[in-house]
Amino acid sequence: QKEVEQNSGPLSVPEGAIASLNCTYSDRGSQSFFWYRQYSGKSPELIMSIYSNGDKEDGRFTAQLNKASQYVSLLIRDSQPSDSATYLCASAKSSGDKLTFGTGTRLAVRP
Amino acid sequence: DAGVTQSPTHLIKTRGQQVTLRCSPKSGHDTVSWYQQALGQGPQFIFQYYEEEERQRGNFPDRFSGHQFPNYSSELNVNALLLGDSALYLCASSLENRDYDIQYFGAGTRLSVL
């Protein structure tokens, strides 16, 4: 079982729709969770970080964390073609710890 | 404010050769982590440097070594290159002693081993 699992996709949504990306993790010791966006051929860019159960909103992005069920999700509202990228979910056990990544979910927003 | 910078951008080597990749952390950051990202995969942790010491290490062979300098910049060295070492090598920097430190990535070095 991989430590962080994501559906590789592609997830295809129409422009303006809500894109829902999911991630599960196996290590209950994980404390910090991150969503990175990676355009093809580029490096990962931090979108959201979340540390406590519940929702965290930042603009069109909402991260959700449920430690009891060991899942993290990212909602993108009003999806735009520029959101088309691979979204990487990552976890860490503590501050300063290494990041453990999933394989990423490819999102395609069609005009 | 300069972000994380990596050099070179691209590199082509042949099997058996050695390579050195370089990273300068974001201004004010003191911790550097290196990751390897194969095509279609998520980044895999290689090692992390703090106060010029290797603090954590992932599941990579001893052919992978590194160094951190007093100015917090870092190098990744790979000896006896294999075809399977072809990947995007990412450097990430962060600031120690914060409650939740975020790792910021550089643009990466794409290594091709022929």
List the helices and strands and how they pair.
The complex is a heterodimer of chains A (111) and B (114).
Chain A: E1 4-6, E2 11-14, E3 19-25, E4 32-38, E5 45-50, E6 54-58, E7 61-66, E8 71-76, E9 85-92, E10 100-101, E11 105-110
Parallel strand pairs in A: 2-11
Antiparallel strand pairs in A: 1-3, 3-8, 4-5, 4-9, 6-7, 7-8, 9-10, 9-11
Chain B: E1 5-7, E2 10-13, E3 19-24, E4 31-37, E5 44-50, E6 53-57, E7 64-68, E8 74-78, E9 87-94, E10 104-105, E11 109-113
Parallel strand pairs in B: 2-11
Antiparallel strand pairs in B: 1-3, 3-8, 4-5, 4-9, 5-6, 7-8, 9-10, 9-11
* Biggest pleated-sheet summary of chain B: 7 strands, mixed
Helix content of chain A: under 10%
Mean pLDDT of chain B: 94
**N-to-C series of helices and strands of chain B:** EEEEEEEEEEE
Describe, in short, the structure shown.
The complex is a heterodimer of chains A (111) and B (114). Chain A has strands at residues 4-6, 11-14, 19-25, 32-38, 45-50, 54-58, 61-66, 71-76, 85-92, 100-101, 105-110.
What does this structure look like?
The complex is a heterodimer of chains A (111) and B (114). By secondary structure, chain A is mainly beta. Helix content of chain A is 0%, strand content 54%. Chain B is built from no helices and 11 strands. In chain B, strand 4 (31-37) and strand 5 (44-50) form a beta hairpin. At the A-B interface, strand 4, strand 5 and strand 10 of A face strand 4, strand 5, strand 9 and strand 10 of B.
